[in-house]
Amino acid sequence: MKKHRGELEIDEDIQLESTNWKVQRVAWVLMSLFVLAALLGFTGDGGIGNFQSIKAGDSADGLEVEYERFLRRSAPAEIKVSLQAAPSDTLTDLRISKNFYEKIKVDQVVPEPAEVYTSEEGITYSFTTDKQPFTVTFYLTPKGMGSLPLLFSSSEKQVAITPFIYP
Amino acid sequence: METVIRGLVLYVFLMIIFRISGKRTLYEATVFDFVLLLIIAETAEQALVGDDHSMINSFVLIITLLLADISLSLLKQKYKAFGKVLDGVPVIILDDGKVLHDRLKKVRVDEADILESARALRGLERLDQIKYAILEKDGKITIVPKEPEQQPIEKV
Hints:
Chain B: Its main location: membrane. The complex is a heterodimer. Chain A is an alpha+beta fold.
């Protein structure tokens, strides 16, 4: 054991400790940045100014998907899809790629689809419509983690989105 | 499997976060620090167990955490340098009767804290009765008084 002033037996290592203090100061800055990022919505769950709420596609073209860029595993989420009603048929189809029902638990779809079926490409929701543009809201709980590429297709258009799911 | 990963990730996360927030952070247990500790515990609990409230999950988790703790203590014993980095080292904050103000500032301790420990541990009344004050690695301040026959340092 080292002796301080020849009397106090102490394992002091002031060099290590001053490195430690420097690391601590840097870490405090990083912690502040992390909180700032959370406030700006980079960790999901909204944020100041709603910067992370994104619209993909265009409702004028018949398909628009509104979603949050960052989602959280097991935390409730929402995806809104604006659709143009199919001109010929009474039912309007919205097909979403397989990931959608494999990595996400769909809690509720508003309005309720008239039919739902799965196929090789994914899951198809058929909605009864009034020949008007309409919006479908999906209430979801993500189950997976990481980037989740999703493809939304109506009869004419396709929109791809890639939200990120935090563990 | 997920429980083990959750447990280990949270263990490492908490270790790092408390290490970098400095040793005095949770030792000065004022009422508010106590509340803070409770809130952190509650938040960590959610991240640890998630939605799985089964007994086997808590068994897995408890054993994982204890095993992590045991492994770490073994590592610290084997590699002294690792232990120093992880736990820090004691720092002399009052040396031979002289208060080291620059160090006090760095460790977020003030003279009042030294006096508090001096009163509590040794029944001392003034700073000039203290020979050494040391901030130990667990965040306590220990006191060596200025007396001809020095008694061993004692901890509360």
